[in-house]
Each structure stands twice: as structure tokens, then as C-alpha cells.
């Protein structure tokens, strides 16, 4: 029990400066060990934030002369008032009753089966599957149990235990989508069709629309970071558009770059990123692309700027060092007229035919 606190004169056997709050209740407790064991768990993140807050409070109380017992007592009282802790405790008690109490034996077994099915479906949706739909990762009994204890909820007193889908999916994603470390082999992620590949394709389309090259592993890092909720889509978009400034430094402080950097993400009817309504380097170059197409008697969609000028548009850049810029419209037109494609177009043959006929008439032919 608590012995109270002594704001003016602590007892001789207790010296506040010797009290380490972290070691006493916040460092080696079950709660702290749990958060360290599984730091990416959504509940563990809430617990960690609570621990960090309480560590400060405990040290302040220690400095004021509070006894260790009272500090710990008030810590446990604050913990009991946390909603996440209350929810987790209720779910844990209900699960223990299902497993070892008077609940029908089949209830917990059914929960295990439905949880395993949910995990496998979530992993397939992410793309952890082969061309036949078979899982390419193992789902252990231990992991199923972890998900049950992490994501189970009891909606109301006496209600059946169920999974919180949002918590469960985040827990699964955090477990199977680990951050790339320095010793990770570079390259693409071995993943099948699914949410991860779809998101990768969307981010890659934004990069391609801005003619920037981003290594596969860097794009996958963005995809995984988004799915883990380490950051959002807007952060990933900022990373990509910043590459525009890095790759084309002569665009710094230009209206083109300001429009690109200031553009907001746009989405289609299915919720996927769409570059059609966004300001991109491609949208800036569309008129130039159209000019080339009209001179070559074809459509703009048939003109590939990267095929003509290089993946990084290096051949579309003119000017001396320090004065680089993209071609203007006149330079683009002149370039297109000197290209072999122009000579085979109707725009070339018809005017030239008229010129030859005029010359022939003047010569009396």
C-alpha cells in the first residue's frame, strides 16, 4: 500500500533522487516489455505513447517527494482509465473464458478458423499469392493466436468476441510488410496481383508522368510505408515530385515546377490515383507532343517523348551548361521537320509535290 507523499520532508530511508521511474514501473513491466516485443502493433503504439507520458509524470512526482508505491498506484489508476486498456482487458477476459471457462468448446475453435480465413484473405488481397491464388507465405497457429489477442473486441457486456477488422488488417500488414533494412537485397518485391501491386503501379504512373526515374526498391518502400501507415499518399507524392526538381534542376523556381509541386492528388471513380487531372511534366509537354504529332500526320498518343528524347528527356534539353532548358515550340517544330518521320508524312509529300509542280511549270515542262 501507499505510504503517502512528503512534499517537504521525505523519510530518511527514501531519497527521491535515487528513484528511477523507468526502472521501477515503466521499464521492466509487462506493459513495456509487450510494447518492445511488438512495437508495430496498433495497440502497442497507444501503450507506448501512454508509457512515455507517464514516465514524465512519474519523474516529476518523484522529484516532489512522492513515494514509489504511490507513484505506481497512480500509474495503475491512470492505466485503468485508458479506453484501449479497458477494451483489451475485456477482450482478454472474454477470450480466456472461451478457451478455458464455461463457454461451449466450439466457440474458440470457430474463432480460430474464421480468424485464419480472414488473415489468408487479407494476405491474398495484398498480393501474397501465386498465379493460381495460392498463398506464398506461411500463416502459423501462433500468428493466428496473436491476431486474435491483438484485434479481438467485445462490443458490449456479455456480447460475443469478434475481430476489429481495422486493427486486424493493420496488424497483419505490419507483420508481413517489414521495412527494408540495409542488408535487404535491392530490387522489386516478389508479390502477385493485389493491393500492393496496384498501389505500386499508381505511384509508378505518377513518376512516369513526370519523367523521373525512381528505383523499384524505393517505390516499394513508399508502397510498404503507406500500407503500414508510416506515412500517407501525400508524403509519397511529395517524394516523387521532389525528384522532378532533382532531375531537372533548371526548373527550380519555374512556373512549371510550382504547378507540379502544388498539384493535389487526383483519383478516378475506383479510387485509384489518376494523373489525368493533375499538373505533371507530361501535361506541360502535351502541346509539344501534339505539335510533333500534327507534323508527322499522326495522333498525340502515337508520340512517345521518352522514345524520341530519352527516358529522362535528355535530348529535349537545350542550352549551355548553367542555362539548360526544354526546347520551345519553334525548336520542337524545327526538330520534328528534320526527323525522318516527317519525310514520310502527308504533310511533307503534299507541299513538296506542289513545289516541284510549280518549278516544273516555270521551266516549261
Task: Walk me through what this model shows.
- There is one protein chain.
- 21% of the residues are buried.
- The chain has four domains: 16-81; 92-176; 195-279; 282-362, no CATH class.
- It is built from 17 helices and four strands.
- 59% of the residues lie in helices and 2% in strands.
- Helix 3 runs antiparallel to helix 4 (68-80), helix 6 (105-126) crosses helix 7 and helix 13 (281-295) crosses helix 15 (329-338).
- With 365 residues, the chain is mainly α.
- The protein has a two-stranded antiparallel ribbon. The protein has a two-stranded antiparallel ribbon with strand order 3-4.
> Would you tell me the structural class of the helices and strands?
mainly alpha
Tally of strands:
4
Computed over alpha carbons, the radius of gyration is 32 Å
In total, how many domains does the architecture comprise? 4
Instruction: Give the integer mean of the pLDDT values.
Output: 80
Give the terminus-to-terminus CA distance.
Answer: 121 Å
- Strand order, sheet with most strands: 1-2
Largest sheet: 2 strands, antiparallel
Keywords:
two-stranded antiparallel sheet; disordered N terminus; 365 residues; mainly alpha; 4 domains; 59% helix; two-stranded antiparallel ribbon
